[in-house]
Amino acid sequence: MTKRLETITGEKLFELELKESRVIIENILPSGLHILAGSPKIGKSWLVLWLCQMIATGETVWGFKTTKGKVLYLCLEDKLPRIKSRLMSITENASEATAFATETLPLGGGLVAQIENYIINNPETMLVVIDTLQQVRTLGSDNISYANDYKDISALKSISDKYDIAIVCVHHLRKMKDDDPFNMISGSMGLSGSADGSYVLVRDNRMSSKAKLFITGRDIPDTELRLEFDKVNCLWKLIEHDAYDEFENDEPIIRAICDYIREKKSYYNTSTHLLSELAKCGYKEEITPATLSKKLRSHADILNEKFNIYIEFIRKSDKRILSIRDGNDTNDSNIA
């Protein structure tokens, strides 16, 4: 007899108190399975080693907060002397929260069990880095297929989902250029399509110290970071973040909400009601309540840090409420 589908109604789903995915680096790295791709020798390993150090010590990454925890770095193209040299180049204080391994079993041959065993014995783990993905795959380059790529990624994704951690697989780019940097990730669409996030590091030119880091994912906004490699300190430094420019120029709904809250000082009602209030103030763009809530979630940190506006999402049995207040206003009686 065919097993019946397990279903849930939209109404019941809205009533559930579900845990949201953990954020490892705000606006940049949520929990899940991610691909970091770039050309050979571009500096991918320097970048992930520094990210490991920042998460292990709880320090910010380009000004973004991190969730402090243990890190497992599978550096499979290097030996311990090189890892030690690189670590000493980026920090004076190595952390006990970072563990390194230079050899593992392959995917499909015990790697998943090795990673899971480490996490079970180290429940504070936040990040696992596999550098590089090709080193743990048993297939040769001539056996690349969507099915095989999807199978490999799904095996790792199952761990990230089960333990709510981030797994970053360092990978290579195709030699062929493309207007969409994510199309340059080596392999089939099974890799990037099944991953929760993709990161592509591209230098301005081979001899340049400047590069762009393109970011896309299911739980993070599409972002482009302008970076420069500091050869003295061996660090990728942030020189420009386009998300702020996008906020200023391409998000009129957020600007309209800022103006509204500056005048009203506070708001406590649904997204639907807020859209009707903004329409009364002259805002004309058509946008759904769900899209408005999504935009507010993605811009909550920027609104807080740049404009001192605080947003809280409150769940009630029959509806979801937005609580927005002007942090510059000291009169709490304005809050409905």
From TrEMBL:
Q: Which SUPFAM superfamilies match?
A: P-loop containing nucleoside triphosphate hydrolases
Q: What is this protein called?
A: AAA family ATPase
- Source organism of this protein record: Oceanirhabdus seepicola
